[in-house]
UniProtKB/TrEMBL annotation, chain A:
SUPFAM superfamilies: Periplasmic binding protein-like II
Lineage, top ranks: Bacteria, Bacillati, Actinomycetota, Actinomycetes, Kitasatosporales
Pfam families for the chain: OpuAC
Record organism: Wenjunlia tyrosinilytica
InterPro entries the record matches: ABC_Gly_betaine_transp_sub-bd
Molecular function terms, GO-annotated: transmembrane transporter activity
Highest taxon of the lineage: Bacteria
One annotated Gene Ontology cellular component of this protein: ATP-binding cassette (ABC) transporter complex
Name of the featured protein: Glycine/betaine ABC transporter substrate-binding protein
Domain ABC-type glycine betaine transport system substrate-binding: 46-314
Gene3D superfamilies associated with the record: Osmoprotection protein (prox), domain 2 (3.40.190.120), Periplasmic binding protein-like II (3.40.190.10)
TrEMBL record, chain B:
Keyword flag Disulfide bond: no
The keyword Repeat is annotated on this UniProt entry: yes
Gene Ontology molecular function: ABC-type quaternary ammonium compound transporting activity; ATP binding; ATP hydrolysis activity
Name of the protein in question: ABC-type quaternary amine transporter
Source organism phylogeny: Bacteria, Bacillati, Actinomycetota, Actinomycetes, Kitasatosporales
Domain spans labelled ABC transporter: 36-273
SUPFAM superfamilies reported in the protein's UniProt record: CBS-domain pair, P-loop containing nucleoside triphosphate hydrolases
UniProtKB/TrEMBL annotation, chain C:
Organism of derivation: Wenjunlia tyrosinilytica
Membrane topology summary: Multi-pass membrane protein
Entry keyword set: Membrane, Transmembrane, Transmembrane helix, Transport
Domain of life: Bacteria
Localization in the cell: Cell membrane; Membrane
Biological-process GO terms, alphabetical: glycine betaine transport; transmembrane transport
Name of the featured protein: ABC transporter permease
Lineage per the UniProt record: Bacteria, Bacillati, Actinomycetota, Actinomycetes, Kitasatosporales
Length: 320, 352, 258
């Protein structure tokens, strides 16, 4: 998924609406009291994550599962900045974190053109990262796709009859004044972002109708509908349903795929091959729908990501 | 210069305005002092029960320099500042040549009264010329008149205008700054000056220098001056009259220096006079003011006509002389003095 | 990277304007020029991908730099026209509790994270340059306000006594004595505010107000070092040059004789 990590406004938005991020740096390395095995007995790991709800929830799930399998775990979730998180993995400060296929491909492997096919994108990024940087991506990635999307108020979408980005392109020609956009500034510069989108769909968006905002503000401004009708959002974000927004379908499959997979150093995986068996079943359960619900619990209801992770694992039979 | 009808008329008889002579030298005509009267003036600060100044009444004759002497906190500065209304009196009347000062606009009043403070208060960001020209400019003098006045005043205190005009206060010595402070107050030729320990912050040598210079200046200008000091010697040297003030600015004695030395009103005044009153009195009398004995042929130790009798006594003791010659500035012998001349002068209170 | 050329020509122009520039005054512009040239050469030696090219082109850089300068300078003008009169006003107030209260409020403005002010304002009134300007002013006004107050308070009271004794009206005392003597202190506050503004203006990118924040945030989010470094160097250069220019103005406006 795109890097919300550096969104400096997150703290401020948090203050207004959402989650108290307590206990994320607990650093506790307590042996799991109950567990689904002792496959990792004697092993110790440090788990990282980026600094937004989805990442922290994924990180806490990882902590719980590792402990349940007998490992000692240090919790270093909620690292400021996407690049810092990746650097922490490369330098060995953390043993693992969940990374998104699109991010790995474009941000770290410095490609500019994404691969449309989900499976193809995963295989390419996993192979190249392993070969170039000795970073392993655990297969399979989660089916959820936290990609870019454009959201619009539900009543507006209904009134204008909008379902897909192609509908939006048509609208931009028939009612140009309605085609107003809120995007992040980074989105305006990437090939898989705004420039490519306009080209792929033939959307007309004069500069004055494109406002560049902080990620957090895009949700509130799109919900108000004054600054813009269409906001660039992340597909799994809990604030989409919370703000009564709907996502327009990417019917031409333009946006890159952002599926999360647990990334770790090649050596770590070789030493503990059990990790693959432990995390594959978890990944398989994480769908976009499921993740949106969990994110909303954190971002909208203000629940603790740690509690969200633990109860979800219990509810789904990963923890007893 | 318009609103004062012939202020010179109020100069007491017997005091010949020396300024008239200066006019012939090409200086602008000088406005002499105005008579100041304070009647029943009191000051009670808000929230205080005790008045700072209580029922102060005093007449200051035109052209005289009156020293207010008293311990610090006695209200002498407060009393002085009520004249230019930096402090507003709570009650009473203050007049200047009969004009009620309390009915005037205080800012305009202050431009007509020179003001010199101990810290001098030259504005560091203005040149000497600009400092001196402030009040004339506020009064709307034209450029040429102002510039001429500035140069004239700088000359008056021995500061070469070409050298000092465009300097800044920081570039001047303390004594030079104090001279500028005085001429700044004189700039618009006010009839009245208020001086608050103006020489208090200078070293003793500079102070004596400034005092003598100032005295010479005042002899020519004949301003009416209220001069606050806690230094009784200074008051003796400069004052035409001295007001010894007690608490709440009560006037304990208001008289000429000689009378205060000769007849202190009470122990309080005596404590100011201190010892050696007789010697101090001699210090008030100038040799040239006495009837001199005819000059003899013998060559004698000499003093100048402007030396005090204290200097004469000093010469008598120093040279073990019976007589001392008094010479004028050209060295011409005017006459002689002996010890008896001194005692006689002390008895009579001098010729002042 | 045509932006490189602009600061380089600044020193010579200054020299002819003020004539007060010595060799030591040229150190800052020299450092800036060297940094900009080094960055230019480095970026030119790289093969930029399409993401980097969209940012690292002269049109984009000059546009963002101009926006940044405009934000900073307009905010500074606003700060001057608000904080200086306000500082003067509270220096006149008799009530002792007023200055600490006003300074306290200004302190709150500075202590509140600028990004928080930006976001809150955007949520209430909508995004744009106005919001960015408001938070810039709220964030950076304190040094000017405080220094105006201090600048006036530090004027030797005997000077004010002398001025009043000479018959100056309160307004004349203010304009002819207190303000000129407060100028160096006020300008020092202004320099601080300028540098604050340059920094905080990078946040304008979050509320559709442009500036060099666009470049820096892109560089960070997409992990493109050439973009991040160029944005940072441009921002730092503006801060250094404005502070440098502020210093020149300060020595030019410092009242003579002090």
């Amino acid at each position: 998924m795109p890097q919300r990590a550096t969104s400096l406004a997150l703290a401020a938005v948090t203050a207004v609406t959402i989650l108290p991020l307590s206990g994320c740096f607990g650093g506790d390395s307590v042996e799991a009291a109950s567990g689904s095995g002792d496959a990792l007995k004697g092993a110790s790991f440090t788990v990282g994550s980026k600094d937004f709800a989805e990442q922290i929830i994924l990180g806490r799930m990882t902590v719980d599962l590792l402990k349940a399998n007998g490992a000692k775990v240090t919790d270093k979730t909620n690292i400021k900045g996407s690049a810092s998180t990746r650097k922490a993995l490369v330098s060995g400060d953390i043993s693992m974190y969940w990374e998104y296929t699109g991010t790995g491909w474009i941000t770290y492997l410095k490609h500019t053109k994404p691969i449309a096919d989900q499976r193809g994108q995963f295989e390419k990024v996993a192979a190249e990262d392993l070969a170039k940087n000795s970073i392993a991506w655990i297969d399979p990635p989660a089916p959820l796709n936290n990609t870019y999307a454009f959201a619009v108020r539900k009543d507006k979408a209904d009134a204008l009859g909008l379902k897909s980005l192609s509908d939006l392109a048509a609208l931009s020609r028939s009612k140009p004044s309605e085609a107003t956009f809120c995007i992040e500034s980074e989105f305006s510069t990437r090939d898989d972002g705004f420039p490519g989108l306009l080209k792929a769909y033939g959307i007309k968006a004069p500069g004055a109708q494109v406002k560049m905002l902080d990620t957090g503000l895009i949700y509130t401004e799109t919900a108000k509908g004054k600054t813009c009708n269409f906001g660039e959002v992340f597909a799994t974000d809990g604030r989409i349903p919370a703000n009564k927004l709907v996502v327009l379908e990417d019917d031409k499959k333009f946006f890159p795929v952002y599926q999360p997979a647990l990334t770790l150093k090649k050596g770590t995986l070789e030493k503990y091959p059990a990790l693959k068996k432990i995390f594959a079943p978890l990944a398989e359960k994480l769908t976009t729908f499921e993740m949106q619900k969990l994110n909303a619990l954190a971002d909208v209801e203000g629940e603790d990501p740690e509690d969200i992770a633990t109860s979800w694992l219990e509810d789904n039979g990963f923890l007893k | 210069m318009s609103d004062h009808a012939s202020p010179t008329a109020t100069v007491p008889a017997g005091t010949v305005p020396a300024g008239t002579g200066a006019d012939a030298d090409g200086e602008t005509a000088t406005r002499h002092g105005a008579r100041i009267e304070l009647a029943d003036v009191s000051k009670i600060y808000a929230g205080q029960e005790e008045p700072a100044v209580e029922s102060f009444s005093m007449v200051i004759p035109a052209g005289e320099l009156v020293c207010f002497v008293g311990p610090s906190g006695c209200g002498k500065t407060t009393t002085m500042k009520m004249v230019n209304r930096l402090i507003e009196p709570t009650s009473g009347r203050i007049t200047m040549d009969g004009e009620d000062l309390l009915s005037l606009n205080p800012h305009e009043l202050r431009r007509r009264i020179g003001y010199v403070i101990q810290q001098i208060g030259l504005f560091p960001h203005m040149s000497i010329a600009d400092n001196v020209a402030l009040v004339p400019r506020m009064l709307g003098w034209d450029k040429r008149r102002t510039a001429e006045r500035v140069d004239e005043l700088l000359h008056l205190v021995g500061l070469e205008p070409g050298r000092f005009r465009s300097r800044y206060p920081r570039q001047l010595s303390g004594g030079q700054q104090q001279r500028v402070g005085v001429i700044r107050a004189l700039a618009a030729d006010p009839p009245v000056m208020l001086m608050d320990e103006p020489f208090g912050a200078t070293d003793p040598i500079t102070r004596e220098h400034l005092q003598n210079e100032f005295l010479a200046l005042q002899r020519r200008l004949r301003k009416t001056i209220v001069f606050v000091t806690h230094d009784f010697e200074e008051a003796l040297r400069l004052g035409d009259r001295i007001a010894v003030l007690g608490e709440r600015s009560r006037i304990v004695q208001y008289d000429t220096p000689d009378r205060i030395l000769a007849e202190p009103a009470d122990d309080y005044v005596r404590s100011f006079v201190g010892g050696q009153a007789a010697i101090k009195r001699l210090g008030l009398i100038r040799a040239g003011d006495l009837d001199l004995l005819p000059a003899g042929s013998a060559s004698l130790p000499s003093v100048r006509v402007d030396a005090t009798l204290r200097d004469v006594l000093d010469a008598i003791v120093a040279h073990r002389a019976q007589r001392i010659a008094v010479v004028d500035s050209d060295g011409r012998v005017r006459g002689e003095l002996d010890f008896d001349s001194l005692t006689a002068a002390a008895d009579s209170g001098g010729a002042r | 990277m045509t932006a490189v050329a602009t600061p380089a020509s600044a020193p010579s122009r200054r020299r002819s304007l003020t004539g007060v520039i010595g060799i030591r005054h040229l150190a800052t512009p020299a450092v800036v020029v060297v940094a900009l040239i080094a960055d230019y050469l480095w970026v030119h030696s790289l093969r930029l991908d399409s993401i980097e090219q969209r940012t690292l082109n002269s049109g984009y850089l000059v546009g963002r730099t101009a926006e940044h300068l405009k934000l900073t300078l307009v905010a500074t003008v606003l700060i001057m026209s608000i904080a200086v009169p306000l500082g003067v006003l509270i220096s006149r107030v008799r009530a002792r509790w007023v200055p600490p209260l006003v300074l306290g409020l200004a302190n709150v403005g500075q202590a509140t994270p600028a990004i928080g002010v930006l976001v809150l304002l955007t949520i209430t009134v909508g995004p744009g340059v106005g919001v960015a300007m408001t938070s810039l002013v709220a964030y950076s006004a304190l040094p000017v306000l405080r220094n105006t107050l201090i600048g006036i308070q530090q004027v030797d009271p005997t000077l004010i006594e002398a001025a009043r004794g000479m018959g100056m009206r309160p307004a004349q005392v203010l304009w002819r004595i207190e303000m000129p003597l407060a100028v160096p202190v006020v300008l020092a506050g202004l320099r601080t505010a300028l540098v604050f503004c340059v920094g905080v203006a990078t946040l304008a990118t979050f509320v559709n107000a442009g500036g060099l924040g666009d470049i820096i945030v892109n560089g960070i989010k997409l992990d493109r070092d050439p973009v991040l470094v160029t944005g940072s160097i441009l921002t730092a250069s503006i801060a250094l040059l404005l502070d440098w220019a502020g210093g020149l103005v300060e020595s030019a406006l410092r009242p003579k004789g002090t």
